[in-house]
Amino acid sequence: MSTEIRAITPDEAADYLRVLPFANGLPSWEPSPAAWYGGPEPWPAPPPPASAAQLASYAEEVMADGVHPVAAFVDGRLVGASAMIEFEVTVPGEIGVPMGGVTSTAVIATHRRRGLLRSMMRHMVDGARERGESLAMLSASEGSIYGRFGFSPATTRVRWEIDRGQAGFAPAPAPAGELELVDAAAARSAWPAVHDAVRRRSVGELSARPGQWDGLSDNSLGSDGPMRYVLHRGDDGEVDGVANYRLPWGRTAGDAGTVVVDALQATTPDAYRALWQLLLDVDLTRRVVAAGGPQDEPLRWMLSNPRALRITRQSDNLWLRLLDLPVALAQRRYEVQDVLTLRVVDDPMCPDNEGTWRLDATTSEASCTRVDSEPDLAIDIHALATLYLGGGSAQLLAFAGRIEPNRDDAVGRLSRLFRIDPEPFNSFGF
């Protein structure tokens, strides 16, 4: 048996896609309540298998610039697939950093447990490092797969809901600007600029891929009803907020009168408040559900009853992996000035990350250099990934045995260095 791991050619794109669950009409998410899904069922129904026309369209996307598909071949047969997409992710300090996003990963059932996924991951990690990407991220379909490759949860996503009768806003000046109900074409036009403005100052947010919003449509999707769109314009007439939502409907009496908010972004507090004021007061509705929001949604603190916003589902969102530890730690900014020496013991996927590192955050631009001295603490690569964007708790990770301090104040100093407010969040996966 011969095994080969390599990039695919355009002629192999269709075979590559046939390995992936979504192209076969199979679910590609963890079969449990998913925080990023807003419907009444535990998870959305899988789509039908892709048609020949769809496969041809997907093949063009797979071979597009900035996408790096890789496959596993056994005796010449394509049996495994994955890819890395070039993104920019915002890290603390409002700095955009190149990142490799792992996506579309599968090995056919007859060839699992043979190390093919690890080999494909090895190939992609090496390619990302060659491109100068110090970070890799992914949306994990299952929580038990990617830890063994050094990935760890770095952002969190929640689903929340509000009963319309409890959705009153606390007294505040009326938001400036005006709202406009629009069609899908107008939403597709508005989204890129709004998202780009938001993501540049939001830690954890990703740059959008070309065609990110091309799928927005005025047509019904199955029995879910059509998507609706609303824009907010500031006093200058420029769009500074946009939201996608579905009109109230439900498959059962218990779900009737529910508005599902699919996405909302705003560049100003006025736009944010105005959009939510409209969505929480749609006629003939009883409840609003928003899937895929941050844990610390500002809306809670705009309500006269903060308890009205109830989190009903929660899960990790993006998982992060440090590919080049000293570069990654020097690329972000830190909340306090300090010098901390940390030791990473075991990182078989990226052994260059192992060793003792001196993180100097006493100037506006941090530095991270290898040293030969007693560390303030030892930390595993997973814990460092969880802390990197500024979320996660160093104290909890230490309690769990992922951080071992050599000095009494080491964990507290680590926490103050890395933690940010608000927590990192990203609005879409890949």
Q: Please identify the top-level CATH class of the largest domain.
A: Alpha Beta
Counted beta strands: 19
The span between the termini is 33 Å
Net shape: globular
Number of helices: 9
Low-confidence stretches: none
pLDDT averaged over residues: 93
Evaluate the radius of gyration: 23 Å
Series of secondary-structure elements, N-terminal to C-terminal: EHHEEEHEEEEHEEEHEEEHEEEEHHEH
Helicity, as a percent range: 10-25%
CATH architecture tag of the largest domain: 3-Layer(aba) Sandwich
| Main structural class | alpha+beta
The spatial strand order of the largest sheet comes to 1-2-3-4-5-14-6
Strand percent estimate = 25-35%
CATH superfamily of the largest domain: Gcn5-related N-acetyltransferase (GNAT)
What count of domains describes the coordinates? 3
CATH topology of the largest domain: Aminopeptidase
Describe the largest sheet. 7 strands, mixed
